[in-house]
Protein backbone atom coordinates (compact mmCIF):
# COMPACT_ATOMS: atom_id res chain seq x y z
CA UNK A 1 0.00 0.00 0.00
CA UNK A 2 1.23 3.49 -0.82
CA UNK A 3 0.82 6.50 1.41
CA UNK A 4 -2.18 7.54 -0.71
CA UNK A 5 -5.47 7.22 1.14
CA UNK A 6 -7.98 4.72 -0.35
CA UNK A 7 -10.75 6.27 -2.44
CA UNK A 8 -13.49 5.00 -0.15
CA UNK A 9 -11.77 6.59 2.84
CA UNK A 10 -11.61 9.94 1.05
CA UNK A 11 -15.30 9.69 0.17
CA UNK A 12 -16.19 8.89 3.77
CA UNK A 13 -14.24 11.87 5.10
CA UNK A 14 -16.02 14.25 2.72
CA UNK A 15 -19.32 13.52 4.44
CA UNK A 16 -18.08 14.41 7.93
CA UNK A 17 -18.66 17.69 9.70
CA UNK A 18 -15.58 19.85 10.20
CA UNK A 19 -16.87 21.77 13.24
CA UNK A 20 -19.89 22.13 15.49
CA UNK A 21 -21.41 24.67 13.08
CA UNK A 22 -20.87 22.86 9.78
CA UNK A 23 -23.14 20.49 7.90
CA UNK A 24 -22.59 16.76 7.73
CA UNK A 25 -22.56 14.08 10.39
CA UNK A 26 -19.96 12.99 12.91
CA UNK A 27 -19.05 9.40 13.73
CA UNK A 28 -17.37 8.15 16.88
CA UNK A 29 -16.87 5.08 19.04
CA UNK A 30 -17.49 7.13 22.20
CA UNK A 31 -20.01 5.93 24.72
CA UNK A 32 -22.71 8.46 25.60
CA UNK A 33 -20.81 9.48 28.75
CA UNK A 34 -17.56 9.87 26.84
CA UNK A 35 -19.28 11.96 24.19
CA UNK A 36 -20.74 14.32 26.80
CA UNK A 37 -17.45 14.72 28.67
CA UNK A 38 -15.38 15.32 25.53
CA UNK A 39 -17.83 18.08 24.57
CA UNK A 40 -17.71 19.53 28.09
CA UNK A 41 -13.94 19.69 27.69
CA UNK A 42 -14.43 22.00 24.69
CA UNK A 43 -13.97 19.46 21.89
CA UNK A 44 -16.31 18.25 19.15
CA UNK A 45 -16.05 14.77 17.60
CA UNK A 46 -15.66 14.78 13.82
CA UNK A 47 -15.28 11.19 12.72
CA UNK A 48 -13.70 7.80 13.15
CA UNK A 49 -10.05 7.61 12.11
CA UNK A 50 -8.85 4.20 10.93
CA UNK A 51 -5.44 2.85 9.99
CA UNK A 52 -4.70 -0.70 8.87
CA UNK A 53 -1.62 -2.72 7.98
CA UNK A 54 -1.32 -6.36 6.93
CA UNK A 55 2.22 -7.42 7.68
CA UNK A 56 4.28 -10.50 6.89
CA UNK A 57 6.47 -11.42 9.85
CA UNK A 58 9.86 -12.70 8.74
CA UNK A 59 11.86 -15.71 9.83
CA UNK A 60 13.68 -15.38 13.15
CA UNK A 61 16.51 -17.68 14.19
CA UNK A 62 17.27 -18.18 17.86
CA UNK A 63 19.29 -20.23 20.28
CA UNK A 64 17.32 -22.96 22.09
CA UNK A 65 19.19 -22.47 25.38
CA UNK A 66 19.73 -18.69 25.39
CA UNK A 67 17.66 -15.78 26.69
CA UNK A 68 17.66 -13.23 23.87
CA UNK A 69 15.59 -10.58 22.13
CA UNK A 70 14.36 -11.63 18.69
CA UNK A 71 15.23 -8.50 16.73
CA UNK A 72 13.46 -9.46 13.51
CA UNK A 73 10.16 -10.02 15.31
CA UNK A 74 10.53 -6.94 17.54
CA UNK A 75 11.10 -4.71 14.52
CA UNK A 76 8.20 -6.28 12.62
CA UNK A 77 5.71 -5.78 15.43
CA UNK A 78 6.82 -2.19 16.02
CA UNK A 79 6.92 -1.20 12.35
CA UNK A 80 3.48 -2.67 11.59
CA UNK A 81 1.87 -0.80 14.48
CA UNK A 82 3.63 2.39 13.41
CA UNK A 83 2.23 2.06 9.87
CA UNK A 84 -1.31 1.57 11.18
CA UNK A 85 -0.94 4.54 13.53
CA UNK A 86 0.44 6.84 10.82
CA UNK A 87 -2.45 5.99 8.48
CA UNK A 88 -4.98 6.65 11.23
CA UNK A 89 -3.30 9.98 11.89
CA UNK A 90 -3.36 10.81 8.16
CA UNK A 91 -7.15 10.42 8.21
CA UNK A 92 -7.33 12.74 11.22
CA UNK A 93 -5.26 15.32 9.34
CA UNK A 94 -7.48 15.02 6.26
CA UNK A 95 -10.63 15.68 8.30
CA UNK A 96 -9.04 18.69 10.03
CA UNK A 97 -8.94 17.15 13.50
CA UNK A 98 -6.81 18.59 16.29
CA UNK A 99 -6.34 15.14 17.80
CA UNK A 100 -7.56 11.58 18.22
CA UNK A 101 -9.09 10.33 21.47
CA UNK A 102 -9.68 6.76 22.60
CA UNK A 103 -7.26 5.07 20.21
CA UNK A 104 -7.39 1.27 20.21
CA UNK A 105 -4.65 -0.89 18.71
CA UNK A 106 -5.58 -4.47 17.88
CA UNK A 107 -3.85 -7.40 16.18
CA UNK A 108 -5.43 -10.40 14.52
CA UNK A 109 -3.90 -13.35 12.73
CA UNK A 110 -5.16 -13.93 9.20
CA UNK A 111 -6.33 -17.48 8.55
CA UNK A 112 -4.89 -17.89 5.07
CA UNK A 113 -1.25 -17.58 6.20
CA UNK A 114 0.19 -18.14 9.68
CA UNK A 115 2.88 -15.55 9.01
CA UNK A 116 0.40 -12.71 8.31
CA UNK A 117 -0.91 -10.36 10.98
CA UNK A 118 -3.31 -7.44 10.56
CA UNK A 119 -2.72 -4.39 12.72
CA UNK A 120 -5.64 -1.98 13.17
CA UNK A 121 -5.63 1.46 14.80
CA UNK A 122 -8.95 3.22 15.37
CA UNK A 123 -10.01 6.28 17.35
CA UNK A 124 -12.25 9.35 17.19
CA UNK A 125 -10.95 12.55 15.62
CA UNK A 126 -11.86 15.68 17.60
CA UNK A 127 -11.54 19.41 17.01
CA UNK A 128 -11.26 22.12 19.66
CA UNK A 129 -14.28 24.41 19.63
CA UNK A 130 -12.12 27.53 19.56
CA UNK A 131 -9.38 26.14 17.34
CA UNK A 132 -6.76 26.35 20.09
CA UNK A 133 -3.36 25.67 18.44
CA UNK A 134 -1.86 24.53 21.75
CA UNK A 135 -3.59 21.16 21.56
CA UNK A 136 -1.54 19.95 18.60
CA UNK A 137 1.32 17.45 18.79
CA UNK A 138 4.95 18.60 18.84
CA UNK A 139 5.19 18.23 15.04
CA UNK A 140 2.11 20.37 14.44
CA UNK A 141 -0.12 17.42 13.52
CA UNK A 142 -3.03 15.93 15.46
CA UNK A 143 -2.29 14.61 18.93
CA UNK A 144 -2.99 10.93 19.64
CA UNK A 145 -4.24 9.45 22.88
CA UNK A 146 -5.57 6.12 24.10
CA UNK A 147 -7.34 7.81 27.01
CA UNK A 148 -11.07 7.28 27.37
CA UNK A 149 -13.39 10.27 27.11
CA UNK A 150 -13.61 10.40 30.91
CA UNK A 151 -9.83 10.31 31.36
CA UNK A 152 -9.40 12.89 28.61
CA UNK A 153 -11.75 15.24 30.48
CA UNK A 154 -9.90 14.63 33.77
CA UNK A 155 -6.49 15.22 32.19
CA UNK A 156 -7.52 18.58 30.72
CA UNK A 157 -9.25 19.58 33.94
CA UNK A 158 -6.03 18.96 35.87
CA UNK A 159 -4.08 21.29 33.58
CA UNK A 160 -2.44 18.75 31.26
CA UNK A 161 -2.95 17.80 27.64
CA UNK A 162 -2.19 14.68 25.57
CA UNK A 163 0.65 14.91 23.07
CA UNK A 164 1.22 11.51 21.57
CA UNK A 165 0.58 7.83 22.06
CA UNK A 166 3.96 6.29 22.80
CA UNK A 167 4.87 2.64 22.62
CA UNK A 168 7.68 0.16 23.01
CA UNK A 169 7.90 -3.43 21.84
CA UNK A 170 10.15 -6.37 22.65
CA UNK A 171 9.79 -9.92 21.36
CA UNK A 172 11.89 -12.22 23.50
CA UNK A 173 12.95 -15.85 23.54
CA UNK A 174 12.97 -17.41 27.00
CA UNK A 175 15.62 -20.11 27.13
CA UNK A 176 14.58 -23.73 27.63
CA UNK A 177 15.79 -25.44 30.77
CA UNK A 178 17.99 -28.48 30.45
CA UNK A 179 16.69 -31.93 31.41
CA UNK A 180 18.84 -32.14 34.52
CA UNK A 181 17.78 -28.69 35.70
CA UNK A 182 14.14 -29.63 35.20
CA UNK A 183 14.48 -32.87 37.13
CA UNK A 184 16.21 -31.06 39.98
CA UNK A 185 13.17 -28.84 40.67
CA UNK A 186 10.43 -31.47 40.43
CA UNK A 187 8.17 -31.28 43.49
CA UNK A 188 10.00 -28.27 44.98
CA UNK A 189 9.16 -24.63 45.56
CA UNK A 190 11.98 -22.89 43.74
CA UNK A 191 12.41 -19.76 41.65
CA UNK A 192 13.33 -20.42 38.04
CA UNK A 193 15.89 -17.67 37.81
CA UNK A 194 16.54 -17.88 34.09
CA UNK A 195 12.80 -17.43 33.40
CA UNK A 196 12.53 -14.57 35.89
CA UNK A 197 15.52 -12.83 34.37
CA UNK A 198 14.17 -13.17 30.83
CA UNK A 199 10.70 -11.85 31.63
CA UNK A 200 12.13 -8.99 33.68
CA UNK A 201 14.56 -7.93 30.97
CA UNK A 202 11.97 -8.10 28.18
CA UNK A 203 9.54 -5.87 30.08
CA UNK A 204 12.31 -3.38 30.84
CA UNK A 205 13.28 -3.16 27.17
CA UNK A 206 9.68 -2.45 26.12
CA UNK A 207 9.20 0.21 28.83
CA UNK A 208 12.53 1.83 28.03
CA UNK A 209 11.58 2.16 24.35
CA UNK A 210 8.23 3.69 25.25
CA UNK A 211 10.00 6.17 27.52
CA UNK A 212 12.39 7.06 24.69
CA UNK A 213 9.43 7.90 22.44
CA UNK A 214 8.00 10.17 25.14
CA UNK A 215 11.30 12.03 25.38
CA UNK A 216 11.38 12.42 21.58
CA UNK A 217 7.86 13.91 21.75
CA UNK A 218 9.15 16.49 24.29
CA UNK A 219 6.64 15.21 26.84
CA UNK A 220 6.83 15.68 30.59
CA UNK A 221 5.54 12.20 31.38
CA UNK A 222 3.37 9.26 30.35
CA UNK A 223 -0.04 8.41 31.84
CA UNK A 224 -2.22 5.34 31.53
CA UNK A 225 0.68 2.99 30.83
CA UNK A 226 -0.38 -0.56 30.02
CA UNK A 227 1.89 -3.54 29.35
CA UNK A 228 0.47 -6.30 27.20
CA UNK A 229 1.91 -9.78 26.91
CA UNK A 230 1.20 -12.07 23.99
CA UNK A 231 2.64 -14.86 21.87
CA UNK A 232 0.60 -14.13 18.70
CA UNK A 233 0.76 -17.78 17.71
CA UNK A 234 4.53 -18.04 17.76
CA UNK A 235 6.36 -21.09 19.01
CA UNK A 236 6.75 -21.88 22.69
CA UNK A 237 9.09 -19.77 24.82
CA UNK A 238 8.57 -16.71 22.57
CA UNK A 239 6.61 -13.79 24.03
CA UNK A 240 6.07 -10.13 23.21
CA UNK A 241 5.94 -7.37 25.78
CA UNK A 242 4.22 -4.26 24.45
CA UNK A 243 4.16 -1.06 26.51
CA UNK A 244 1.81 1.76 25.55
CA UNK A 245 0.63 5.01 27.13
CA UNK A 246 -0.19 8.66 26.45
CA UNK A 247 2.59 11.23 26.69
CA UNK A 248 1.42 14.51 28.28
CA UNK A 249 2.46 18.11 28.76
CA UNK A 250 1.07 20.93 30.95
CA UNK A 251 -1.41 23.27 29.30
CA UNK A 252 -0.31 26.84 28.71
CA UNK A 253 -3.16 27.77 30.98
CA UNK A 254 -5.36 25.56 33.08
CA UNK A 255 -8.96 25.36 31.95
CA UNK A 256 -11.15 27.35 34.31
CA UNK A 257 -13.02 24.86 36.53
CA UNK A 258 -16.30 26.73 36.12
CA UNK A 259 -16.19 26.05 32.37
CA UNK A 260 -16.16 22.28 32.82
CA UNK A 261 -19.08 20.37 34.25
CA UNK A 262 -18.64 18.03 37.19
CA UNK A 263 -18.30 14.49 35.74
CA UNK A 264 -20.66 13.05 38.34
CA UNK A 265 -23.32 15.48 37.17
CA UNK A 266 -22.86 14.36 33.59
CA UNK A 267 -22.90 10.68 34.52
CA UNK A 268 -26.10 11.12 36.52
CA UNK A 269 -27.99 12.03 33.32
CA UNK A 270 -28.07 8.36 32.38
CA UNK A 271 -28.71 6.89 35.83
UniProtKB/TrEMBL annotation:
Protein name: Heavy metal-binding domain-containing protein
A family per Pfam: YbjQ_1
Family label: Belongs to the UPF0145 family.
